[in-house]
Amino acid sequence: MKQPARALGLLAASICSLGVGLQQANAEPVPARAPVQSAASAAAPVRFLVVAAQESILSASVAGRFAKVHANLGDTVRAGQLLAAFDCAEVQARRDAARAEAESARVQYEAKMKLQGLQSAAEVEVELAAANVNKAQSQIRIFDAQLGQCAFLAPFAGKVARVHVKVGQGVNPGAPVVELVGNGPLKARMNVPSQWLAWLKVGDRLEGTVDETAGACSLKVTRVAGRVDAVSQTVEIETELASTSGQVLPGMSGQIRAPAGR
């Protein structure tokens, strides 16, 4: 009887010891891996995209058919230069007719004014003649506005990035005509890990490489977004290309890394 009791006592002691061991194991802290992953994410290269300081897509505001297309791919243009034009002969003819009517209305008004001075015309006749002058001038302004929509002028100095139309081609409102990029300094935009906000500030310089040329570049931070993307945990920043090795064009891309020790 003593041996079974002793065996039961030993079994109970073993179970208690095992329970204490499990409690201690559960009480021991599990190594946190999140900071390691976060550090790895912060150290990973960040992609950037080169963009022009000024970009514009000239589009048609009315339907028309092109009579002139002076822009060619890669052309350097100045601000206000004519790039393309619709065939607006009909609108021009209507404007000329409106100018003739305006001149006729002006002559009639002056005649009524003279007759009124001779007591031969009523005041209401003079007012009607003046209203006809204003109406004719309004028609001229309408046709002037329509003629303005016929010409596509460069809004700034730059280069032609793409030409969408040809002479004789008809387009509908909203159709793209010519794409321009400005001559100003190039910029680069990217989404960096939100951990960078602990040290990143406007004016900092980031070193990177342009993929297309394999040349080094130096990017100066000019803007930092005021919100972090909750899904990707990144923040958008904008930089200017302070220095580059080789030619860099809008649309090129590259990568940067956080400075050593960050």
At a glance:
By secondary structure, the protein is of the alpha+beta class.
Helices, strands, pairings?
Blueprint: H1 2-27, H2 34-43, E1 46-51, E2 55-59, E3 64-69, E4 76-77, E5 82-86, H3 89-117, H4 123-148, E6 151-153, E7 158-163, E8 170-171, E9 176-182, E10 187-193, E11 205-210, E12 216-224, E13 234-244, E14 253-256
Antiparallel strand pairs: 1-10, 1-14, 2-9, 3-5, 3-8, 4-7, 5-6, 7-9, 10-13, 11-12, 11-14, 12-13
Helix pairs in contact: 3-4
Q: How would you explain this protein's 3D organization?
A:
By secondary structure, the chain is α+β, with helices and mostly antiparallel strands. It is 35% helix and 30% strand. A hairpin with a 5-residue loop joins strand 11 (205-210) and strand 12 (216-224). A six-stranded antiparallel barrel has the order 1-10-13-12-11-14. A four-stranded antiparallel β-sheet has the order 2-9-7-4, with no helix packed on it. The chain contains four helices and 14 strands. Helix 3 (89-117) packs antiparallel against helix 4 (123-148). It has helices at residues 2-27, 34-43, 89-117, 123-148; strands at residues 46-51, 55-59, 64-69, 76-77, 82-86, 151-153, 158-163, 170-171, 176-182, 187-193, 205-210, 216-224, 234-244, 253-256. The radius of gyration is 38 Å and the shape is elongated.
